[in-house]
Amino acid sequence: MSNIVLMALVATLGTWAVTALGAATVAFFKSPNPKVLNLMMGFAAGVMIAASFWSLLQPAIERAEEAKGTPPYVIVTAGFLFGAVFMWVSDKIVTYCRRKANCTQATPNECLNRIIMLVLSITLHNIPEGLAVGVAFGSLQNTDFSTESLMGAITIAVGIGLQNFPEGAAVSIPLRREGYSRRKSFLMGQASGLVEPVAGVIGALLVVHIEKILPYALSFAAGAMILVAVHELIPECQKNQRNQPYFATMGIVTGFAVMMLLDVMLG
Question: What is the DSSP secondary structure assignment for residue 68, as one 8-state letter?
Fold first, then answer.
């Protein structure tokens, strides 16, 4: 059990590190290369969509079929929808706070308060992402530990990590534009991802100790990941579609293909 939780911690520390890496771009660029970001977000979306089924929903369905009483389709559907709704609510909060964080006509104190609210809202947004990684690793305790299942959990962490890179930059670079030092901009940008290791460990512990919630937890993580991929990553990576109509799309296809290849090859 301790090894499973430790792996969840290491994986979510990795997703936080990618957030910090994205925030660190403030030291080199006024704005990151949009072409690279679009490719990364597209690849992450493809990985997350594929992983949502093979590494989360499929084992959730199998576990739900073993449960007695509640029909499997009710368990998986309820968990999936709850995960999507939870992420939707956190996304609404982030969107509202980003709008409020516009410091064009605000005093320094008001601007600071708005930026703090923005960082806190993005932190809330990262909780279900950390839970998704933790649940994926925690489920290894209740399944036949195999290379396939381990790689599935790792690819979920990789997909979430990749989409954390632009999130870190999205916080630190606007702060720099508002006159904050590079150091303060970086520290506030990376802070938004610190909650992921905490949420990851909690998710792993819950699944390890309460086996009955496993199908709910797996489908919850899938719902959260699908919403992130479809609502955030895909539209964002397609913003430059007119100039490069298939660049980001091929990132999505490649990400999906990589996840599918790993599943087939290791299965």
Answer: S
What gap in Å lies between CA 78 and CA 4, rounded to an integer? 26
Choose among 17, 47, 26: nearest CA to 233: 47
pLDDT in tens, 72-101: 889 999 999 998 998 888 778 777 766 666
Structure tokens given for 121? 């809202």
Check: CB of residue 173 under 8 Å from CB of residue 30: yes
Cα–Cα distance, 12 to 137 (Å, whole number): 10
Cβ atoms 48, 228 nearer than 8 A: yes
229 contacts: CB under 8 Å, gap ≥ 6:
44, 45, 48, 49, 52
Q: Summarize pLDDT for 173-227 with one digit per residue, the tens.
A: 767 766 778 888 888 888 878 889 998 999 888 887 777 788 888 898 889 888 8
Instruction: Extract the tokens encoding 257.
Output: 């293909």
DSSP state of 33: -
Task: Please answer whether residues 200 and 8 qualify as being in contact, where contact means their C-beta atoms are separated by less than 8 angstroms.
Answer: yes
